[in-house]
Structure formats: structure tokens, C-alpha cells
Amino acid sequence: MPSTVSSSPPSGKCSDHAEGQLHCSQSFRVTESFNHYTLGIWDLYIEKPPIKWQIPIFPLITDSAQFITDLRYLWRAIRDLSSPLLFARLAVSAALALSPAASLWFTGKFLQQVQATINDQELDGSMMIQLTCGRVACSLTQCLLERIDGWLYLAFDDFVKRHYSQYAFEHVARIDVPTFMDPTASQRLDAVSLRYGFCPVGRTVDSLLRSGCSILVLFTQVHVLVAILHEQGIGSHLSFLTCLCHLAVCLLTQMELTNSSLEGLAYAATTRNQDYVKMEGLKQLVSDREHRQEIVANGLGPYLSRHFLELSCRLGNRGGEFWSHFLIYQRKINHTTHLLKWFAGELPEIAFVFIMARNMSNLPMVLAAFTLVQSAAKNLRLNLNSILQQTGDFASQLTNLRAIYGVSEIENQIIDGTQRLDPSFAGISLEFQDVSFQYPGSKTYALRRVSFRVKQGQLCVIVGFNGSGKSTILKLAGRIYDATEGTIRVNGRDIRELKLDDLHRSIAVLFQDYTLFPVSIKDNIALGNPKYATDLELVAEAARLGGADAVIKRLPDGWNTYLSRPDSVHDVIRIQREDESGTIDRTLRQLTGTQPPQGLSGGQQQRIAVARTFMHTLGPDSSVGLLLFDEPSAALDPVAEHDLFSKLHGFRGKRTMVFSTHRFGNLTKYADIIVVYRLVRRYMNETTIVETGTHEELIQAKGDYARLWQLQAEAFR
Asked: Which Pfam families does this UniProt record tie to the protein (predicted)?
């Protein structure tokens, strides 16, 4: 059932006291699904946690059923990552886990020898040397194993990143546009983290490995400690009490975190205090460079300072960011558990005092044993904390695993067809039959009942006002989206029945909202036809056809120029002292070869995009039969526009061409068919076809096309 949160102003009060302490009222209004708290000037709404059975040993795993289900993804990850590196890490980690217990055993034996020396008044030098050497050998071995483990960790982490980078790339690259834009699918795709070298799978496997090692360390140390104390005559009950107390401290710590944590819960925080909002706005006003000119020109500095002081005094210590108030709230609700933690931590020392009182004759050994137990107990607590923390992390990381492997289960919204589309060397026919379309999530139609037909080898020009749906026509023809209603036919067959690979190979498209890829200029063009991406002659020919060859020659790195490097690849230049002359900066940039981003005009960028489209048509086995161009000359100058259309005219009769434009002249005059769009229901934002025909026919009809033609022709009279 959907939850509702009341938006009425909070009735609690938050006041300042003389001692400067902040008093915040707790939950005083509860909705059906959310608790409400007032923290200073902030209103906090926290989802009521669901009541679920918990595994006692894993207090941070709240959904045991989901946890068990997610284990299959862990098993899948282990199978995928099975390699000599993984088994080497397991062996080294196990050896590292045993080394603390071995070191503790040698320390205990050393104490026994000291006790025997005191009792017998005779020193066994050989045994003492052996124990000392054993203790040193343990330390050296542990140091060596840690170095090996560190190297294996880096090597294994690199292996995991490469494996899942390939996995993620493959499954993200296959996603179609509607699915990629879908909010639910987008959230699942974000889990694969293609950027910045982050891979949660490596963290999950590492967390599992460390948890297992911590458990092994815990049990081996407890076993050795109990044996040492028993041999010393102090008794195992003391070690049991010590371990129990430290376990209690760990559990109480986790209870504190659970009671005051927002992990796994939905929450929202807002402030309705206008003084605080205005004060923060004034801070940003005087800090941002963009406002400095207005502040100085209008002499606002003194006024802003006085007003800021007034607001600050009015707020007192009730102001401040949300998280500082939340920290105070956390401390307040954890007073009792904090007291219990202190008592549990001190109880073993109290017990030792009683033991010392009963064993005054053996005081040195009791003190030595006390020091040994305290040191071991400290390590035990660290391991317990590590286990509990990694358990919570492990549960969330299993969720990440589910999300990562779930990417392969995302189904595209554009369903692949089953029929082959044979290559055509005389063009492809295209027909829209009563087609209507709504963009995903939109309630209005971008197209409404559109019908027209383009025969093989014809030149079709779609004209109309901005926002009339011209671009949408081309996206539907390329099957970027599926029509909401009606049928689109390619060579007489329903476009939904055709195999997508064949369709995309047969269509070359230039979108109005084209983008240049974050790769080199050469690759930007070459990716128009991946099969011949390494054929430099074809790439150069595509650049010539698109008019980009002259642009490329003027770039400093030519074909290898990056207009902008990928976000995760950037040069690191830091000058941590004054460099007024800029000499150091220039030297570093010269050494690294760092160049500022290459800026191109809109027309130059469009030439590269056009070249990429031409690249799709090149190659000895090219099967492109349909060219779709959406405003191909929008950013071109008249000369470049004329050159482009002259080259495109060479395709007439060989390939079907469909253009959308709002500029007449070079295209419409020679078109076999012109399709005119208009907004027919303005309040519904619906567009449809109002005219079709040749240039001469539409001029004689004196309709929308004739009026638009006359408007543009007026400028040249």
C-alpha cells in the first residue's frame, strides 16, 4: 500500500539553552508508514522498518529469504572467477589467519618456561631460544605472507575488473533506446559501473574471504588462549568470560548502529526554516564567481554582511546542515547501550582483580597472563567487529551481485524479428500506414494517424515546423522506437517482423540530435561501418564525402585528435606552490603533452557526423538501401550545404533517401515526394500530415507548403 506523509508544519519545538546544548524532540507524529522526527530546524521522515526474521549470528541481514536466494549469484561469481589467482589467495589468506594463533601459542609457551624457571630456579636456555626463534619466525612469516597477499590482491582485483568490464560492456551495448531510457532498467544498468574501474564483485569476494579468515582467526585464537590459561592454572572460565564480554561489546556496537542507522530504509529530510534557507543562499551568493560582478557593481557587500549576521543570530545553534543534527540524534538515543558497553569492557579486569587477590603468591604470572589475555581479547574484539561489519557489507554486496547479474536478464523493449531483409541495390521502399506514436512516459501523441509511401530509389523530403514530428518519423523508420498504433512497412513487410541486424545494416541514419563519440576523430568516422573500421582509405573517403577532410587536416593531432577525452581519462597536474609566471604549468603540460580540448564549431562537428553516416554506405559489400537524414545541413554554411546535397544527389535511383528539414531549396525542388507536417491540435500537441506531393504540385495547391516556400523565398527577392 502506498505510504503517505503529512506535509503540515511540525508541532514540536527546538530551543536553545544557556549551556548551548541542542534539544530535539523525537517522534511526535506518526503516519501509516513513516515516523517523523524534528532535529533542530530539520524535519526527518524515516520509513518504519519491516518486521522480518533475522539470522541471529548475522544481525545486519534483515531479509534472510532474500539473502539465501542471492547466494546463487555468489556461487555464480565464484565459478566465473575460479582461477589460480583465487586459489592462491585462499591459501595465503588461510595461512595468514593461522599465524596469530601460532604467535599466541609461542607466547604462551614462553610464559610457561618463565613460570618453570621461577618454580625450579633453573633456566632451560635451549627451550627459551627455540621459543624465541619460533616467535620471530612467526612474525617474519606473517610479514612475508602479508606482502604476498597484497600482491595477490592487486592481481586478483585487476583480473576481476577486466572480467566484469567485458561482461558489463557486452550486456550494456546490446540495450535498445527505449529500454536504456526506462528508469527501472536504467537503475539496473547503473549497477554494472563501467566507469572509473569500480567493481563491486571484487569487493564481495574479498569480503567473503576476509570474513572466513576472521572467523578462522577468532576460533584458533580462542582455542589457544583457553589452552594457555588452563595450563597456567587460571582456568578456562576467565577466558570464556573475557570472550563473552567482548562479544557483548561488539553486539552492542552493532545495536547502536542498527538503532540509529538509515541503512536500507527510505527517508527524507527537509527544512522549512526560511532564515536558514536564506542564510545558505547568501553564503552561495558571496562564494560563487558568477555573482561577483553583480555584488560589486551594486555595492551589496556591506548589506549582505549585516543581513547574514542578523540571520545567524536569529537562528543561534538551531541552524546547521542535516547530518550534524542527525549525529546529535544518534548520540542521544544510544546512551543506555553506551553504558552497557563500558560495563562489559571493564568486567574482565574486575574478574582479574579477584583472581589476583586469590593468587598473591603467583602475582607475576597472573599479571603476565592478564596482559596476554587483554592483548588477545583486543584482537578478538577487532575480529568480531570485522566479522559483523563484513556481514552487513556482505549482505549489501550480495544485492549488488544480484543487480550485476540481473543486467543479463534485462529484456529489450524492441523485439527482434525473424525474417531476413535481403540487400537491395535499387533502394528500399518505406510505407507508413495510419501510424501514431507516443514517446515512453508521455501522455500526448508525437504523431497521429500518419500515412505516406516512398518507393524504391525515391527522394522524400519531410517538411514542417519545429516540433511537428519530423525527427520522430525517422526514428520510427530506423526502428529506434516501435509505433504505438499502425504499421510501418519496409519492402512491403512489417518492420517488426524483420531481423534488427539486417534492418540496421540496410539503413544509414543521421539524427538531428547526433553526438560525437568520446573517441578519436578517426574512430568517430570509422564506427559508421565497424566491419571496415581499420580500412583507412574508406575512412578518408567518408571524411571527403562528409566535407570533414579539411577540418581534420587543421587539427593538431589530425586523425588521432580527441575532441574531449573520456571522463575517466584525464591528466593529473597539481602545482602545490605559487607559480605566478606559469612556467611550471607550461613545463608540466609540455612534458605530458597535455592539450586543451579541441573546440569545433557546430558546422565542423556536423561534417564529422555526416562523414560517419557516409561511412555506413561504403565498402564493397554495403547493403545500405535507405538513407535517413534529419536536418543534415542545420549547422552548415551555404557552400558546405551545397556540396553535401550535390554528393547526395549522386545516390538518386540507387538508394532511397528520406530527409527532414525546415529549409527549402536544394532538397524540395528535386524531391520525388514531399510530406508536409503541421500541428493540428495545439492543446494536445498532436501533429499529422496535411499535404503530400511534388514541389510543383504543392506550389499549385497553395497550401501550407506553398506558404512556407513563399516565406523563405521573400528573403531573396
From this structure: ABC_tran (PF00005)
Q: Cβ(421)–Cβ(498) under 8 Å?
A: yes
* Residue linked to cell 557526423: 609
| Residue 575 falls inside a structural domain | no
Strand bridging mode 493-494 / 485-490: antiparallel
Write a three-state SS string for 407-469. Answer: HHHCCCCCCCCCECCCCCCCCCCEEEEEEEECCCCCCCCCEEEEEEEECCCCEEEEECCCCCC
For 125, other C-beta atoms within 10 Å of its C-beta total: 10
Same domain, 507 and 396: no
Indicate the residue among 297, 318, 339 that finishes a domain.
318
Q: Are 504 and 549 members of one domain?
A: yes
Domain boundary among 263, 293, 318: 318
Q: Output the domain CATH number for residue 662.
A: 3.40.50.300
Task: Please indicate, yes or no, whether the overall pTM of this predicted structure exceeds 0.85.
Answer: no
Burial of 131 (0-12, 13-18, 19+ CB in 10 A): buried
Determine the Cα–Cα distance for residues 376 and 227; give it in Å rounded to an integer: 13
Asked if residue 332 is part of any domain, the answer here is no
| Rg of the chain on CA atoms, in Å | 37
Q: Which residue positions in the chain have pLDDT lower than 50?
A: 1-30, 52-61, 196, 682-685
Q: Which of these, 541, 543, 504, 531, lies nearest to 626 by C-alpha position?
A: 504
Q: How many structural domains is the chain composed of?
A: 3
Span 321-372, pLDDT tens digits: 888 878 777 777 666 777 777 777 777 777 777 766 666 666 666 666 666 6
Task: Please state whether beta strands 459-463 and 673-681 pair in parallel, antiparallel, or not at all (unpaired).
Answer: parallel
